[in-house]
Each structure stands twice: as C-alpha cells, then as structure tokens.
Amino acid sequence: MAEPAPAGTPAPDEQSGPDDRSAAPNAGRTGGSTAGRWDRGWRGELGRLLEVTALVGLVITQPLLDVLGRSPDFFLFHRADPAQILLLVALVAVLPTTGVALLGAASRLAGRTVRALTHTGLVGLLTAALAVQVGRHGTPLRGVPLLVVALAVGAGGAVAHRRWRAPRLVLRLAAAGQVAFVALFLVASPTSAVVLPRGDGGAAGTAQGAGVHPPVVMLILDELPLVSLLGSDGTIDAARFPHFAELAGASTWYRNATGVSGWTPNALPAMLTGRYPAKPVAPHYSQYPDNIFTAFGGLYDIRAEESITRLCPPSRCEQPVTPEQGLGVLVRETGTLLGRIAGPTDSTVDPEDSYREQTRVEAGLDAAEPVPADPKFRWDSLDDNQPARFTSFLAGLKPAPRPTLHFLHLLMPHSPWAYLPSGARYDAPEDLPNDGAGWVDLARQRHLAQLGYTDRLIGETLRTLRAGGLYDQSLLVVTADHGVSFRPGAQGRGMDAIKAAAGEVAWVPMFVKEPRQQTGRVDDRNWEHVDLLPTVADEANIRLPWRVDGRSARQAPRTDGTKHFYDRPGEPTTFPGGMPSPPPLPTPHPLVGTQVRAGPVAGNARVADLAAFTATDPDTGTLPALVWGDLPDQIPDGTLLAVAVNGRIGAVVPAVPADPGGRRFAALLTDDTLFRAGANQLDVLQVTPDGTLRRLTLS
C-alpha cells in the first residue's frame, strides 16, 4: 500500500501528471523508468495547459468575443476586412493563453515544486479575475470590496485545485470552450455576416419608362430632431441655420417625416430597403441583400461612404481604407475593452456596452433605455473617420459620363458633441451627465452648437454641387435617420423618450430637391422613412425588383396618419402623426455679452485644464470652450455662476446638485470670438441675488 504524501507535497497530478500513481510497480527497476517519468511529466504539462486554456477562455476569450460578436457595426465602422477580423480572433484566442502558459512553463526551471506552486497561483489569479466579472454582473459589489471577495474566491479556487482532482478534471474538459467560443463568433454571432458573408447582394433594378437617370446625391445625417431646426413660428430658423433654410427654400420639405427606429443599425437599413425592421441582424449586405445599392448598381455607378453599415456589396462599390484603419486599431480598441471587462469598478463606459449606445449610467439616459441586441459602435471614435468620409464625399461630387449615386451617412450632429458652430473643437469629460437640473440644458446647448457646425457642412455641400455643375441636374436628398429627446427625465431614444417626447425622437428633417427644382414647397403627408427608397427610385426612374413597405411620394399620400416606430425589430410602437411643436429656446441671461464688473472674492473653485487658457492657439482648431470644474459646498445649489473670458461674460449657468462625479459645474462658451491667441484671462463669478458679481479664486 502506498505511503501517504507528506504534508505540503504537491498532489501527484501536479508533480508528474494525472496517472502518476497508476504506473507499473516495477517500473523504477528498469531503464524504462526515465521514459515513464518523462511521459508522466509531459502529460502533466498538457493537463496544466488545458487548465490554463479553460480559465483564460472564460476570463478573456468568451467576454471579448461575446461583445465583439454582437458588435458588427464596430468592425464596419473601422472598415475591417474578414482577414483582419479573423486575425484579431486568433490573437484573442491564442495570445493570452500562450503568454500565461509560457510563464508557467518557465517556472519549471526552478524545479517541480516551484512549477506546481506557480501553476496553482496562476489558477488562483485567473479564478479571481473570473470572480470579478461574475461579481459585477451578479452582485452590487464594486471597487475594493469586490476585489477582496474575488481574491478570496481565487484563493479558495487555488486550494481546491491543489487538494482535489475533480476541479482539475472539470477545467481540462472546459478547455474545449475556447473552440466553442470561436465557433460561435464565426458562425452564430451577428458579426459572422461580416466575417463570412453569404451572398453578394440582391437583384438590380431595371429602367422604369423612358425617363433619364439623374445624378442622385444622398446625405443622411444622424441624431437630428426636426424640432432642433425650427424657430418659434415652425419654420427653419434661418438666423441660426441659414444653409438648412436655403435647402428648404429650393426643395420639397416633407414636414411630417418620421424615422422608423431610434437605433441606426435598424433605422438606416429600413430607409435603404423600404422595409420595416424585422430582425436584429447586422447592417450588412448579406443580411439586407435588397437595398438601394443593389437596386441602382446595374444602371448607376455608386460612390458610397457608409459609417456603421456595409449595405453596399463589393460587387457594387469598394470603400477605401483610411489611414486610421487596420489591425492595429482593432487590437488597441479590443485591449481597451478588455481593461473595462477586467476591472472591479464600473468605468465611464460600461465594459459590456463598450460598442453600444451610451447607457443611462454613463450618459444620464432614461431608465427604460433599452440595450439593443446588436451593440453599436463607439461614438467617442467619431473624429477618427467622419472628416475623411465627408471630404471624400465632396471630392466625388463631379459630373460623370454615367449616372452616379453619391451616398454619405455622416455622424453629425450625433454625440459626442465636440464642435462649436464655427467648426472649432473643444474637449469635454466623458462622464458629464445629460439629464438633471442644469445638465439637460447644457446637453441641448451642446447639441445645438454641433448642429450649427452641421449647417456649415450642408452649406459646403451645396457650394460644391454648384461649383461642380451638379446642383441643377441632381436629385438631392438630405435627411436624418432619427432624432433624440432632451426632455428632462426622458433623455435619449428609448421607450421613455418615445412616450414622453415622440416629436423629438421620431420626427426628422426630410428634404428632396428634384432635378431643376427652383422653388421650395412643403408637403405634410404622412411620410415614414420606409418611403425613402421608393421615392428616390421613382425620381431616378428605376423599378425596384422587390416588394417594399414604403410608399413613393409620387403616389397618393397615406390616408392613415398612424406612425410606426421600432424600438426593437419586429415590435412596432404606433402613435398619431402631426407636426411636433419646437420646445422653447432658453432666454439668454442678460449678463451674457457684458463686461465683467466683479466685486470682492467670494470663495474658490477648481477648473479642469486651467492651463489651456494660458497658451491658446485658435489656429489649431481647438479652443477651451467648455469650462468645467468643482465647487465648494459653501456655494448653494442653484447659485448662478458667470463665466467670462478676457473680461466678457460668455455664459451664465447654475450650480447643480452633486452627481457621481462630484459637485461640478460646466459652461459652454459658444462665441469663439471671446478667445485670442496666447494667454486668456478666465473668470468664474458668483452672481448674488441683487446682481453683484463676486469673483471666485480659481485653481
């Protein structure tokens, strides 16, 4: 009978493999003992590799591929080709496992006992990392408490692994999970359509009658409520948005137009296929083979600049790769995602939602904001792609021997809000709330400022069309896929926003300038965005080869005024039509624009990036136009604060109650003439009830 192992001796499985004690009794008397020990050692190393593979798969591979697999638009946004995606998957599945396995194998140089202890320690650490993720999903624990519990779980896992054979066997069987995770990503996830596309688009449309095929120019904006463009009289506010007013004055304005979804990967395919959203699938040509690009592809050349969709198949148009794209970008972004997944605290961007729309936690949206089935791309990467796509779009607006469809989906004025009306950029923290006292007004102000810049882009498009000789002969379409609510307590585009402020979420600008149209007109028919494709096809004299849910504007208007909106594909919400009323614009405080006449010092405040005011260079295109910081408790909530640059007040904002980021204030200075090159004097002043200004000492 075998002697029991002394206390502290590694378990037989960890010394020389799982079958150490089953060796023949007389093996040690022959030369075959060396081969037997080598065989048992090899099997032991293989077992340890399988255990590491299982744990790394659960800690890294599965959560990463889960989020990435539900994020086809992340890859589409970065224009990743199938080879790059496959290589990224290989790196995710192999590299972490290899690194951990090599670390353990290197410890064998210090002896079998050190090797066994190192492996047990790695098992404990990986178990703790897994416990962090499970704890964040299933418990309210965060930060240090969660880390302490996870370390305790990891220690318990290490002890169990060292003492009992069952945990080791379970882990070795679980190693097959790595293969399963990769297979699910490649075959069953929404991203599979991007990696392994099936089909190359649907049938091409045919000529309809003997009419000509005019050049078609389509500019689809993003997250633009119609009401943001309107003045108090219900017309386009020409003072704030002169180029939108110019467009309305020479086109048909479908004033009662609504998008069909608040989520772009559902809304845009509906616009370009003429069909209501039916299934939560990738916005990819293999999932939507019948779309405007396939219909027009037989008769038109296509220049398409898509941002988060890939509806135009390679047989119709190839989208160029910008310098920012490539495997390096994918690896960097995936590494950032892993950091959020692995952390014991909630980051500004929820780790599980890194490629989705912002959630209530990070953006102050309404509590009913849904988590879509297919996560959205990261909006904070907006500036990586949009200027290049807009420039490429403008460069292509030239006459051509064949009719051409020019298409651009531009992520403006969609958040993140970073532009003043002049086009100057400003920086802002990611965690500023969008809802609550003071914050909702700031969010809408920032949206309107970026809309002012979008108006300049519309003007540049009209100028380029005229300069290139395309304006008169073109069919020009300008619209947006959906709006957004700035209603207090119902921010965003979820069901709470739809119920409380459908006029801000569903109604969008819709302008169609027909070839040679000179004067504007208003059409108040019940337009839904499934009408876009049949209308454009009719205007281009193309017969669509598939059935659509929409109705061409050349047909009689709908007799039913009901609107259909899909918060989730296949689940329509209906509400009555009719023109929405624009929310009243806040009246500027009378101090804005006046010179500073400050009284005594009233206290202090901390301002972020105060150094930016000491060396401002407007030629860089960036200004410190968003001033934010912390306030002491001595300044009561609701106290007005005047923010002045170089002696002139640019904004007056209230001190607001504390939020998770602290007791903060923020003010947007939309007038960039406040700034000058070099040093600028920033003042934050407390406005007393009698109108006296008291300067705060800034640090």
UniProtKB/TrEMBL annotation:
Keyword entries, A-Z: Membrane, Transmembrane, Transmembrane helix
Keyword tRNA processing: no
Regions crossing the membrane: 85-104, 116-135, 141-160, 169-188
Region (Disordered): 1-39, 552-586
Compositional bias segments (type: Basic and acidic residues): 560-570
Chain ranges of the Sulfatase N-terminal domain: 240-541
Source organism, top-level taxon: Bacteria
Stated name of the protein: Arylsulfatase A
Species assigned in the record: Micromonospora chokoriensis
